[in-house]
Amino acid sequence: MEQIATDRNPAATATERRAKLFRGLADPSRLAILDTLREGPLVVHEIVGRTALTQPNVSNHLRCLSDCGLVTSIRDGRFVRYQISSLRIADFLRDADALLDIVAEGIEACRNYRLDEDEIPPGGP
Q1: How far does CA 95 lie from the centroid of its chain?
Q2: Of 86, 66, 69, 58, which is closest to residue 17 (Cα–Cα)?
Q3: DSSP labels for 45-89?
Q4: Which residues form a coiled coil (predicted)?
Q5: Do residues 21 and 64 touch, judged by C-beta distance below 8 A?
Q6: All domains of the chain in start order, with CATH
């Protein structure tokens, strides 16, 4: 029943799509990969070398980013080159950096969204 209500409410649908995008971008490894791909198309071992992530980790995150349409791949001989699927994604990341320059103090103080779950005190944030 909830799905039907969402389908009838374009604002709710847009909000859910946006939330799904932000959940996909919420992982530090995926952001590191996207940051690296802002330089241009790269193969997996080049991404590994520039991010210090493991090869299996990079491959898994690339699959996720590809499935979500944020990254595309191009076969280059025996290698596969990955690239950001749209220049708008690189623009979005730049805009996020610019926004952080303005609100960084508030983001750093925010206790609701921590990268390290061990830092969350007992009983929640």
Answers
A1: 14
A2: 69
A3: HHHHHHH---HHHHHHHHHHHHHTTSEEEEEETTEEEEEES-HHH
A4: none
A5: no
A6: 2-85 (1.10.10.10)
Is the pLDDT at 28 greater than 60? The verdict is: yes
CB atoms within 10 A of CB 48: 19
- Which amino acid does the sequence have at 94? R
Tens of pLDDT, residue by residue over 60-77, are: 999 999 999 999 999 989
Q: What are phi and psi of 101, to 5 degrees?
A: -60, -30
Residue holding tokens 């649908």? 13
